[in-house]
């Protein structure tokens, strides 16, 4: 079945204690690549983060909740940030979209080299409580999937298998992107674990399984063959940035009078660019001073 829309799906085998999410994110990763002007390795790194965030967003239970992933391995492309809500709407940022070293020893895009391996993966969940949940683990490889596997095991105490992939066309555009997160529930027995390990050993590449437009259901059905999957949800995924002029006004005010006046000495306006969608917002001198006046009167 040809996949026309980016989707995140959820499936469960209650008897064997397997919970799985899978996503095909080709369109939204291509949108992110276009917005940020990413070269191939940077597109792969950002795409993996966005794909993971889309699935973790779909795991959230209530509307208005969000999850933020940040990887910083002190490589040239770090930090890389991806933010998702419960509707699998994601947005992202990469420090250097032009980071694109030679292929690694396996002939693959060297995501680990541009992320770096001397740093951390941080996950922040805003569950609309008084304080956000924050989990952090040291990087295993900088390839992102392995780092998330460690995060789930150490920070959430859930044994998990994470696979992420982005395939790039020869013209630099995204041909396929997707991934899966498979987790063991408490009732999973040794037989189920052995079967899962056997299945995962046969997975060579996520993108090989979706490069012809296959759906996330087909991806999971192949990876979890011999399991009895019940697909319980399907959520359209998309690249979405909710920035607007009102939010940027708050950013202007946060700069403070001294910094603003220094900027306005050089030119008669203040220009801000959203890191997630590259949309530019221009504030005239009069607008900026009026924002400051109102803020100082409060």
Describe what you observe in this structure.
The protein is α+β, with helices and mostly antiparallel strands. It has two domains: 7-239, Hsp33 domain; 245-297, Alpha-Beta Complex (CBS domain Like), CATH 3.90.1280. Helix content is 35%, strand content 29%. The chain contains ten helices and 13 strands. It has helices at 26-36, 40-58, 111-115, 145-155, 190-201, 206-210, 216-223, 245-255, 257-266, 285-297, and strands spanning 7-13, 18-24, 66-72, 80-85, 89-94, 120-126, 133-138, 160-168, 174-184, 230-236, 238-239, 269-273, 280-284. A six-stranded mixed beta sheet has the order 7-6-3-4-5-11, covered by helices on one side. It has a five-stranded antiparallel beta sheet with strand order 8-9-2-1-10, sandwiched between helices. Strands 12-13 form a two-stranded antiparallel ribbon.
Report the span from N to C terminus. Answer: 58 Å
Low-confidence stretches: none
Fraction of helical residues: 25-40%
- Specify the CATH homologous superfamily of the largest domain: Hsp33 domain
The biggest beta sheet, please? 6 strands, mixed
Q: What general form does the structure show?
A: globular
> Which CATH architecture of the largest domain is right?
3-Layer(bab) Sandwich
CATH class designation of the largest domain: Alpha Beta
Biggest sheet, spatial arrangement of strands: 7-6-3-4-5-11
Strand content: 25-35%
Strand elements, count:
13
Kindly give the count of domains. 2
Number of helices: 10
Mean pLDDT: 94
Content-based structural category: alpha+beta
